[in-house]
Structure formats: structure tokens, C-alpha cells
């Protein structure tokens, strides 16, 4: 198993073990295990580090295991639920500090108008949510204007545009054009995805990035927003 | 300066690379499949052979004479009369004409009838129309003629169907409710697919093609395998082809099983025996093309997955090699150089029984 | 359009131009792997496996056996008539032929 510790802040062997225990608890997808692990870890390292290097690292690992077919969507949600419970326990120690407890960013996600495909987009929404983003999934076959309205309503940092058919790919460009017309393009990052979307298409339609799958969507959202 | 050879990106764009770099990409693609599927990577000889195929100077390559395999067709005649802005070329022709064009002008080995939506669920209200078209096709055609469509369980969830959308339920942490919804949708899917094929078998269809199994995750595969089992039981002689949607069965439910095997997380070499057990005659392994990688990487990966499936399968394997799968670029007009190279590699290295 | 034609030209048995439909039919009818299906059909036709993709060899055989030829030859068996001859050649039942017999008694 890859152990994805970035170890922000001062890491030592004791902390490494602490972070690994937290990470493993999240990967186990069991809320009780995460709560117990956080209970033991609390006070032994700054809360922000426990979250970033322990709980969030575990959540990253869950994403990797999902892509590898070792964990499934229910596990991802159970792990996300468990992680939220762990973060909640550390809330009092976080105080005003910025860390993983604060949302990573607000993302509006939807499948463009004329395209009724939902499942891939729903998986991306779930993985983004599980990674700590505030996600507003506005469904499939979404009228262009609805993307703009939701972005304004939620003060979103990013919009995810899905299309599964070559025929509906153009809808992604239409949303980007309307973002420009509304003066929002500089403020809102745009990610495109779906079977016919490609890196070349992302460049051509003026998106900020293209994501091949749900894990990549999370990684690229972090790259763009953090 | 080292000689550079032309090949493609996964999106079809032409690129140039040295032999060494192409070989490295083949090896990396194969290693990725081997790592994910816990299967053997291609041997050195196989990778060298793939390198020779990719760097072959001709625009078009082909298998050695005597190694040809049947090419089965999906999406029916939609590629002739399809006019939705997709890969169909919009020629106003009946489906009989489209099918006969495949048989007599293209030299197809098998053909199938499919309707424009190409999902099973919408066939129900137009079943008489489909049956009559099948009858006319069977009266005029000689090559095996199946009925084909996608299980597409997504059509059973809100807002398109009666069951609550499991994606929404999952996001609301209603996990058991989401699993229930997937199971109930699958049960309806089994009933629909079986009923549709009962009608078509009664008018002389050779059989059925389940195309893009697993597109909606493990529930989709659960429904397809059970429909296959029911059809095999009722029609012992029916021709059944079962083609997948991707290399991995996504775990939307996570706990659905067939014959004691959890469906979520299965790779092609694990899917093949189950499909055979259910009663299919032909398995269609799939490996999706990564558009950000080269055709060398994609072909290395795809052949590795497919070869393992061919070896594990008790039934013939016809690799899915349409747009964006099997090492073919994701483009409505896939470059012929890339298609023929992928075709040759899949036959000569993966050892597929058909395409 | 280029994709199916490209596959057929690169790897296909070319259907009724040669013996691709017959090999495919045995794969479906008896779940035969490619080698077994080719052996079976070649034996029935009295040719080598390589001949199954040879248009020159198969053209004459298809006309002789009246199992359907790809070009429009007046008088040659077509549709169900050709498939009934294929049934006899391969020793299999084809669903639409069964239905035809049911209807015509």
C-alpha cells in the first residue's frame, strides 16, 4: 500500500505512526475506529497536522483504492463520513486556524444540457465531496443558465462540466462562454470531463483542466484551488 | 538525431517519438495493467512485436494471412443511418439496407439490429416494430444477425426511471437506501431484457448482444448476468454476446454477487469466467483509452488486459475495439493507421478469437 | 465508418467474401474458440484453415454449396434459403430457419 504522507509541519517517527494510525482508520471505513484513533491522537500533535497528514491522507488512499477496484462507492462514503466525525472531534483544537477542517473550495458539478448521463458525474461529485470540497451537484441535462445561477448562489470557486456524448460536448463550451458574459470566468475555474472530452478539447473550449477519472478530478481540483 | 516514428495520442492527434520512447511507453502501459489486474505483463518478445507493429512504415497494417478472425458488429446499422451528430454518417437508409450494406459491402462476419436509442428499456414500447424489422432482416440476410442494445441501468433511476438515484442517495450518506435502489433497478432490468429477447427470439433472431455491460456499475453487470442466465435457460440455442463497458466493474453497490463472486472490482480476466458461467457464447473484454496517453501506452495496457482475459476465458473473446477502447483513439473518425495497428496487435499478441 | 472497414481489412475474415460468417456462426453456436471453429468449418468444407479467408477458394465453394455469395448472382440461394443450406453443411439449427419451417409446415 502506498502511504501518501506529505507530513506538513514537523514530522518525527512518533508522529508518523500517529498519522498512519489515523490514515489506516479512515481506510478501514469504520467510523468507530476513526473516532477511537482521533481520541488517542488528540493533543499529541497539532490538530491541523492530524487532519492533513492523518485523516486526509487516509481519504486520499481511499480514492486510490477506489480507482484500483479494491474499495467501492459505499466504502468511499463510509470513509468520508468517518473522516467528518474525526474532524468534528478536533474542532475545538482548531480554533481560528486554517486547516483541513475548513472546506477546500466550493464546486458546482453537473452534466450539460441535452445529456442525460448521470453516473460518472455522480461518482466525481462523491469523490470531491469525500475529499473535503463543498459540492453542489445540480444533476444532468442542466440548462446552461442553471450553472451560472448556481455558481452565483453558492459563490463557487470551480465548476465541473460533464458530457458523455460527442454531440453534447459543445455544451461545455456554452457554459464557459456564458461565464465570460457574466464576468465570472476569471473567478471560477472550469474542469471538463466525460468520455469524449480530452486535454485537447479542454484547451480548445477554454477550460482550465480536463480530468480522466474521479481520482484525477480530485487531484486537479486541489491543484487549481489550493 | 534519432529517427522518429509517427503514432497517435489517445485523442487521435499525430505525434512523433523515437523507438526507445515508444518501447518505454508500451512497457509502462503493460505494467499499469499488470499492476492493476495482478496479471502478467507482456513478455519482452511481445513488446518487441508490438513495437514492430507500431513503427511499421505502411499507413495500414494487417494480420499475417491465416490469422484472420471474425469481426462482430455492435450498434447495429446506426453507423449508417445515425444522424445525431455522433459517429453515424446520416445516410437515409432503412435498418435492413444498413445491415445488408454491412454484410455485402463491408464484408462483416456478423451483424446486429439495434434501435436509435440503443438501450434495452426503450425497446419495450416499440417491441413490435423491432420484431418486424428483425423478421425482414432474417429473411434477407445470411450472416448471423443478433439484436443488440445496452443494459444501461441509468435509465431506471430518477429522473428517467422509477427508482431513486443511487448517486444522490450516496451523497446524502444513505448507503443502504442507495444499494436497495440499485438492486431493485437491476431486478427490473433483468425482467425487461429477458422479455424483449423472448419476443425477438420468437421471430427468428439469432441471438442477443449485451453491449457495454457494467456502464452503470456492478448493478448493471448483475442484471446482465442474470438476464443471460434466464435467456440461456429458456432458449438453449440462442447466440449470446456479452461485451463490457470498461476494464473494471465499478462498485456502485459493492456487495452484489453472481455465483458467489462479488462483481464490484472485477477485471477482464475475472469477468470472462463469470460471463461464461451465466451462459454467454462470446465475451467482449474492454479496456478504455486514456486520451492523455500515447497509442503505444494504451495499446500496451489494452493488450495486456485482453490477453489475460483470453487466457482465463472458457469461451471465445471478441475484444471491443470501437471508438475509445482497445487501444483505439477516442475520436469519431479514428485514424486508420491507429485502428489497423491496434487490430493486428490484438489478434497477434493478445490472441483474441474475434473483434 | 472507417473503423469497421479498417478492422475488417486488417484482421477480419471478410464475411461472405470468404468463410467468416461460417466461422463466426460456430463460435456463437458451440462457443468454439477461434482455432476450433476454423478447424471445424475447414473440415466441413474440405479446405485448409488458411483457405477460409481466401476469396478465390471460397467463392467457388460458396457457389457450389449454395450457401450465399456476396455478389448478386441470379438464382443463388439468398436469405433463409442460404441459411438452410448452411444448417445442413454445419449440422446446426438456425432459429429463423426453424421459424420458417414452423410457418410453412
From TrEMBL, chain A:
Pfam families: B12-binding (PF02310), B12-binding_2 (PF02607). Belongs to the methylamine corrinoid protein family. The keyword Thylakoid does not apply. Gene3D superfamilies: Cobalamin-binding domain (3.40.50.280), Methionine synthase domain (1.10.1240.10). GO terms for biological process: homocysteine metabolic process; methanogenesis; tetrahydrofolate metabolic process. InterPro entries: Cbl-bd_cap, Cobalamin-bd, Cobalamin-bd_sf, Corrinoid_p, Dimeth_corrin_MtbC, Met_Synthase/Corrinoid, Meth_synthase_dom. It comes from Methanococcoides alaskense. Pathway: One-carbon metabolism; methanogenesis from dimethylamine. GO terms for molecular function: cobalamin binding; cobalt ion binding; methionine synthase activity. Keywords: Cobalt, Metal-binding, Methanogenesis, Repeat. It comes from the Archaea. Residues 104-226 form the B12-binding domain. One of its GO terms (cellular component) is cytosol. This is Dimethylamine corrinoid protein. Residues 9-102 form the B12-binding N-terminal domain.
Automatic annotation (TrEMBL), chain B:
It comes from Methanococcoides alaskense. Pathway: One-carbon metabolism; methanogenesis from dimethylamine. One of its GO terms (biological process) is methylation. This is [dimethylamine--corrinoid protein] Co-methyltransferase. Keywords: Methanogenesis, Methyltransferase, Pyrrolysine, Transferase. Signal peptide: none annotated. Belongs to the dimethylamine methyltransferase family. It comes from the Archaea. It holds the Pfam family Dimeth_Pyl. Its EC number is 2.1.1.249. The lineage of its organism: Archaea, Methanobacteriati, Methanobacteriota, Stenosarchaea group, Methanomicrobia. GO terms for molecular function: dimethylamine methyltransferase activity.
Automatic annotation (TrEMBL), chain C:
One of its GO terms (biological process) is methanogenesis. Pathway: One-carbon metabolism; methanogenesis from dimethylamine. Signal peptide: none annotated. Its EC number is 2.1.1.249. Keywords: Methanogenesis, Methyltransferase, Pyrrolysine, Transferase. It catalyses: Co(I)-[dimethylamine-specific corrinoid protein] + dimethylamine + H(+) = methyl-Co(III)-[dimethylamine-specific corrinoid protein] + methylamine. Belongs to the dimethylamine methyltransferase family. This is [dimethylamine--corrinoid protein] Co-methyltransferase. The lineage of its organism: Archaea, Methanobacteriati, Methanobacteriota, Stenosarchaea group, Methanomicrobia.
